[in-house]
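Methods — Computational structure assignment.
A single polypeptide chain was analysed. Its primary sequence is given first, followed by the predicted tertiary structure written as structure tokens.
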Amino acid sequence: MIGAGPSGLAALKRLRESGLDAEALEREDGAGGNWYFGAATSRVFASTRLISSKSLTEIGDFPMPREYPAYPDHRQCLDYLRSYAKAFALETHIRFHTHVERIEPLGDAGAGWKVRTADGLPKHYAGVVIASGHNHVPRWPDVPGSFAGDLVHAANYKTPTHPVVIAGRRVLVIGGGNSGCDIAVDCARHAATTVHSTRRGYYIVPRMVFGRPSDLRSERLLKMGAPLWLRRLVGTRLIDRTIGLPWRHGLPRPDHRLFESHPVINSDLLALIDAGRIEPAGDVTAFDGRDVVFADGGRQTFDVVIAATGYRISHPFIDGRLLGGHDADAVPRLFMHALHRSRDDIAVVGLIQPDSGQWGITDLQAAVVARMARAARSAPRTAAWLYRLRQRPEPAPPIRYVDSPRHALEVEHFSYRRRLERLLASLDRRLRREGATCSQAAAKRQR
């Protein structure tokens, strides 16, 4: 296991409960991954909270505490994840301070993997699960020119005083995703001027709708089987009745329909725009010293620019072609974003961006990976069935997302979770059947 964040912990637990001798390699000094605020690899900032409710984020067999708010902050998330590790006795199977530098196959599929860590000592494993996340390499905006002030990526933003002081300064935040909106809100409370640049219009969804988390209201319609057009209609009206649609606040109309972009969950942004604390702006076209030029020809002077422009999908410790990519640095091409198309000895957990909570879904991914490993070890017919399944074309997603790097890993959580649940049920059924057949054959041989 590479990584001991939410996905790595779930995978470690699932593999060990399947009887496999699994361990996790974690570069930091404690579990938690991205939610370990202050760690070198963490991308959360001091005011970060979940954008999905705890009910749709928690791992299925480990509910979040009842006293947690609907949207826990990063401290509560870290406490939850470490409580999960403790409850299932996972920490004794995690090697902390262990940075993976390279993994390579020992031979053909099934021969195992050589894992080299920063201490230079390679170790051989029968299989590898990559659960290291995908928010490591910042994606910088492609803007001509250079900026003479403080240029910071959201990856390094922690507070209004670190890594740069915001108070009393002119700040530009680039990016319309959740990080960009949250940082713009953060800055607006301290900066002299806060300008928020977005390339397109987005739907903004409040955290709460009439006293209930907005994603739980949407989940109810999904469980009822409501068609997409009806969910869009209801969702749009609820947004309008709570915080108002973006164009009612002077923002551009989105160039896509509701649900066709990763949801932006924010209950403060529009109010601060209305109060004049955040000034919306269009796309940035050039840097010129401390001046920034916008797509409409406007020009403003800034002291600080914060680029909340996402991350490049990267696993620098493995050749991307080994995960189905077209070249060494390509995005992995995996069955259901998790399973290798032809190998049973490597998988990726957590390489998705669902439009709701993730941890419960990655736990299901981990359960499927554990079944695959079990089948590869002792159930050849089940393994052969899963191999054939992975060669088939996957169904078209129920929603067509905006064509942008941001949506390369986007999945509609409800249908994706259902697919995982059905696959898990099929694997369990086949494993039971094959196990019973083997037991009967063994009994006959003993007679």
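Note: The first helix runs from residue 6 to 17.
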